[in-house]
Amino acid sequence: MKIIPYGKQEITSSDIEAVVSVLQSDYLTQGPAIKEFEDAFANYIGVKYAVAVSNGTAALHLAAMTINIKPGDKVITTPITFAASANCVRYCGGEVVFADIDANTFLLDLNKVRALLEQHPKNTFKGIIPVDFAGYPVNMEAFRQLADEYNLWIIEDACHAPGAWFTDSKGNKQYSGNGVYTDLAIYSFHPVKHIAAGEGGMITTNKKELYEQLLLLRTHGITRKTDDFSNSVAIANGYPTNNESVFPGWYMEMQELGFNYRLTDFQAALGLSQLKRADMGLKRRLEIAKNYDNAFQHHPKVKSQGIQLTENNFENAYHLYVIEVNDRLGLYNYLRTKNIFAQVHYFPTHLMPYYRQFGWKPGDFPVAENYYSRCLSLPMYPSLSDEQQSYVINEINNYLATV
């Protein structure tokens, strides 16, 4: 059997044609493909505004800047996530405060967050960054109610969950990142994600003022909008026309310290092409997850992701399919000898050496740490064949029969 990774992109002839079309056009960057991708993605998610950026980490950084995280601001997030979910707070000088996860969903535990808030005076914390880990959507309505009670903003890290949804108390499907209960949400287009653009990210919001700030910060803090200029026409070396002062066509202003976090047009073209079959990819992920469910739900040595994620009012986008086993290292090493490259998501962020300098230590979050000691992400991507998946399942069973 050829190598079976935990995640993998699928590039079709349509993807290649879309990229080649842009390469043969007049624009490689800052062209029309960017807005086309943004508009299509916003429509897919069901949100008003979307801003394409160079990667998911850039999306987090700009979201943190736009929500105005300042030095010393305390922000709550989960320890079970990629480090960037927390790092964006540090980029702005803020302080990351972790809360433990729910043992069943692996998501930031709402009750643990509430307890943390209750233990401190009001206004101690500024915001929350929940993560739709593995593709399972956070109940953002519940987090919004808690956030409103303590005057907090919410940035949703939805990198794992395009197409995921939960049903709110009004009976409405709320898709991850649609901005109904959050201020900002972010996505990644890394190759192992649902939509692959090589690299790339997206920020979504329903708030026009945040959208406009994101556009400014994405491109060095520079604007070409005449109505927003602060300098005079004279300073810009403009000239009078029809008794009216006019800025010269070349003039632009840097009004804030921004970054070059732009996405290229050929990446946008690839992302847009992939977006067109996103529903098909999600459908296949659900089929693969169901096969894993059937294989492991009643296995005495496996706690399968499907066991705890059975609520009818949630749709998991299954970026990952996670199982928990006692001999995780043994199984991991055995699978690699069979060309099955399962992965671990994630080593708890609070135990990374960088974050331990702030006083975090083993034992701080026992649920997250116990999860880490047992978790293994199995191959999960739309082009995974039934034959390959059966091979993965059989080899897991073969190993577990020996321990």
Descriptive overview:
This protein has 403 residues and is α/β, with parallel strands linked by helices. The protein folds into two domains: 4-219 and 260-400, Type I PLP-dependent aspartate aminotransferase-like (Major domain) (Aspartate Aminotransferase, domain 2), CATH 3.40.640; 222-254, no CATH class. It has helices spanning 13-23, 32-45, 56-66, 84-91, 110-118, 140-149, 208-218, 265-275, 278-296, 305-308, 328-337, 353-356, 366-374, 386-400; strands spanning 4-5, 49-53, 74-77, 95-98, 125-129, 153-157, 165-167, 173-175, 184-188, 201-205, 222-223, 239-241, 244-246, 253-254, 303-304, 314-315, 321-324, 340-341, 375-378. The two termini are 24 Å apart. The mean pLDDT is 96.
Features:
403 residues; Aspartate Aminotransferase, domain 2; 2 domains; seven-stranded mixed β-sheet; three-stranded antiparallel β-sheet; 14 helices; 19 strands
In short:
With 403 residues, the chain is of the alpha/beta class.
Number of helical elements: 14
The average pLDDT score comes to 96
**What is the SS-derived class?**
alpha/beta
Note the main sheet. Answer: 7 strands, mixed
Structural topology:
Layout: E1 4-5, H1 13-23, H2 32-45, E2 49-53, H3 56-66, E3 74-77, H4 84-91, E4 95-98, H5 110-118, E5 125-129, H6 140-149, E6 153-157, E7 165-167, E8 173-175, E9 184-188, E10 201-205, H7 208-218, E11 222-223, E12 239-241, E13 244-246, E14 253-254, H8 265-275, H9 278-296, E15 303-304, H10 305-308, E16 314-315, E17 321-324, H11 328-337, E18 340-341, H12 353-356, H13 366-374, E19 375-378, H14 386-400
Parallel strand pairs: 1-18, 3-4, 3-5, 5-6, 6-9
Antiparallel strand pairs: 2-10, 7-8, 7-16, 9-10, 11-14, 12-13, 15-17, 17-19
Helix pairs in contact: 1-8, 2-8, 3-4, 3-7
